[in-house]
Design a protein that fits this description.
- There is one protein chain.
- The longest helix has 22 residues, at 33-54.
- The chain is of the alpha/beta class.
- The protein is globular and about 45 Å long.
- The protein has helices at 12-19, 33-54, 80-85, 97-110, 121-126, 146-155, 172-185, 202-211, and strands at 68-72, 89-94, 115-118, 131-137, 157-168, 215-225, 230-234, 241-247.
- 36% of the residues lie in helices and 23% in strands.
- It has an 8-stranded mixed sheet.
- The protein has one domain: Vaccinia Virus protein VP39 (Rossmann fold, 3-Layer(aba) Sandwich), CATH 3.40.50.150.
Length: 251
């Protein structure tokens, strides 16, 4: 007999690990420094694809007025805040209560109205919530059940809406660079941040999306440039970090 599926995709160990980082989340030189450095390329990728999907003016400072966005695994708000500034009505959810509280405090100080909740994607999907845009950035490699998580995440996207994800591929190169290099050698991240066996191959993300009726419009690698200290899109290199954008056709 097969093992019964858990009722939630949340990994309690991952929640404890990230709760311990809540106080330093917004420190660009702290333990979340890699996410701060990834910020510009992530924001540009998300912004550009949703501008095209919704036919919005790319020159506008707030092109997404009137649209709802869900940031799953929002952490302390490194993506939720820029999305709110771009005009989205943002809901940010995370299972780590201390991290969510850090997000609320930071948004209040910044004068941003963001609906942060200690909640899971499964709970919102079961409640019938739907969004124009759903983000799952650097979260899918931390869930306990990828299939359950993606079932919920895709259900949360309304017809005509879009889904953006970012993760780390499960390859020998990612073990060398994202785990040995980033955690043990360079100390960019706390040791144990990533488990290689939980990393997600692009195909393991693309197949469920297509089964759910989504059209994958972009799949690109993201590479670090040691000369500039910045991250950039690397369309042909999916071996380590990558991002994906998919749309749900209108009903």
């Amino acid at each position: 007999m097969s093992e019964p599926r858990p009722a939630t995709s949340v990994d309690a160990g991952e929640v404890r690990r990230f709760d311990a980082l809540a106080r330093s989340w917004w420190d660009p030189q702290g333990e979340m420094a890699p996410l701060h450095r990834l910020g510009p390329v992530r924001i540009a990728f998300v912004r550009d694809h949703f501008v095209r999907l919704f036919g919005r003016d790319p020159r506008s400072l707030r092109p997404f007025e009137g649209l709802r966005l869900l940031d799953i695994g929002c952490g302390a708000g490194l993506m939720a805040e820029p999305m709110a500034r771009l005009g989205f009505e943002v809901v940010g959810i995370d299972a780590a209560a201390e991290v969510v509280e850090a997000a609320r405090v930071h948004a209040l100080a910044a004068g941003l109205a963001i609906d942060y909740r200690v909640a899971t994607a499964e709970e919102l999907a079961a409640a019938g919530e739907r969004f124009d845009a759903v983000l799952a950035l650097e979260v899918i490699e931390h869930v306990a059940d990828l299939g359950l998580f993606l079932d919920a995440a895709t259900a949360l996207v309304r017809p005509g809406g879009g889904f953006a994800a970012a993760s780390i591929n499960r390859t020998a190169k990612s073990f060398l660079f994202a785990i040995v290099g980033a955690e043990y050698v360079l100390r960019w991240l706390p040791v144990g941040t990533h488990e290689w066996k939980k990393l997600v191959r692009p195909s393991e993300l693309v197949r469920p999306l297509r089964r759910a009726g989504f059209v994958v419009e972009a799949l690109t690698g993201v590479a670090y440039d040691p000369l500039t200290g910045e991250w950039r899109l690397a369309p042909e290199d999916l071996d380590v970090n990558y991002m994906l954008f998919a749309r749900r056709p209108p009903a």
